[in-house]
Queue: 2 jobs
Job 1
Amino acid sequence: HLTQADKKQLLEDAKYFKGGKYVWGGTTPQGFDCSGYVQYLYKKHHVNLPRTAWAQSKKGLEVSKNDLKKGDLLFFLTDKSRGIPVTHVGIYIGNGKFIHAASKKKGIIISPINTGHYAQTFVKAKRILQKKI
């Protein structure tokens, strides 16, 4: 079971990489893509998530955008040309914000979920409760 202490540490780990490098297909601190970043952070806390945002979106318990808790995964459709319903993922950090590996230009940043681009492309949120999923 993922405890509040686990999630607190996960968020501290996530924020440690703020300003870090975005690399398409990246799964290490030398450079992450969005799902590689999420997978790396959760794996550090003994949770094995799939490699892609789309596959990650199939795990966990779906939660309402109004009921988000720190550590929840947020999923977005940012690239309709790929023909899949989810193309981006980030981690909710509270106060209507999430941290994510955004793009090559922006790297790992914190963004709002209720305004702008990510409000328009939001698909769903998931809560990962178990260490083994």
Note: The chain has one domain: 4-127.
Job 2
Amino acid sequence: MQDPVSILKPTSTVKVRLGDKLGHALQLMVDSEHGAILVVDHNDKLIGILTERDYLLKVFGVIENYMRLPVEDYMTPSPETLQPTDTVAYALHKMDLGGYRHLPIVEEGRPIGVISVRNVLRYITRLCKEPF
């Protein structure tokens, strides 16, 4: 568990920009089969995250005509992040404390990947298969 999070094979980032519409973000999420979309500013700096959970709890069945609304109104701003050198144990601790299923990995404020609970579970499964 002291391996860096890079061993988890983070997924590539799927990003939208400030002002992009929820409909566009949702289509990207579905097409890419990612559970989280990162929201970046004009300098590609991470400013928010929009997850499946955000859609389910804040948008679907709550807001009408949501497809044309801006992502920044429904994203989670200033999400918790990881550095590529952070350990898997640290990432798991952050996920547990915050109840997060996805954590962006950033370098100099710019997203370079995302890890999810699924990445961590695959890692743990591999560890359990290794002889002691």
Note: The first helix runs from residue 22 to 32.
